[in-house]
Design goal:
This protein is mostly helical. The protein has one domain (33-150). Helices cover 66% and strands 0% of the residues. It contains 6 helices and no strands.
Length: 155
């Protein structure tokens, strides 16, 4: 394995997957208008989810910085991060992105955006997470296998 090959072979950079489907949902919403909730409910729940997402994402990023490892999926992992939010979910950044996505769907009042979360999560699961797990298992072996058996993939 060369240094340029030392990374998970994911289908795309994960935030761009979420962003691409969010944009697609907004385009669909422009042409075929939908509605989710009453304005007071969606305008209060949307920001709460986005703030929760930001807090979770910040904590996850901070753990990567503490471990002095790369967070980018196209760079090698130099340490296995199991502290902070990684004690409860193996993928707090993807949980964070999903929360932000749902918050955005609520703020946009778009059933299209919300409905497109299903294919987003399928792509994240099959095209990103499973590939990252395979990479981490080859990189960290028994340590990662033990972590997998003790911490859930999502929540």
């Amino acid at each position: 394995m060369t240094l340029s090959d030392d990374h998970p072979d994911v289908v795309a950079i994960p935030p761009f997957i979420y962003l691409g489907f969010l944009c697609l949902g907004l385009v669909l919403e422009f042409f075929w208008r939908t509605s989710l909730l009453t304005p007071p409910l969606r305008l209060s729940l949307g920001p709460i989810l986005i703030v929760a997402s930001a807090l979770l994402g910040f904590q996850a990023f901070r753990e990567f910085q503490r471990a002095e490892t790369n967070i980018e999926v196209y760079r090698p992992a130099t340490a296995l991060v199991t502290s902070g939010p990684y004690r409860y979910t193996r993928n707090p950044i993807y949980v964070s992105l999903a929360l932000a996505y749902v918050g955005g769907a609520l703020l946009a009042d778009s059933l299209w955006v919300l409905g497109l979360l299903v294919p987003v999560l399928a792509i994240i699961h099959f095209g990103v997470i499973l590939r990252e797990e395979e990479y981490l298992l080859s990189r960290f072996g028994q340590a990662y296998q033990q972590y997998q058996s003790s911490v859930r993939r999502w929540l």
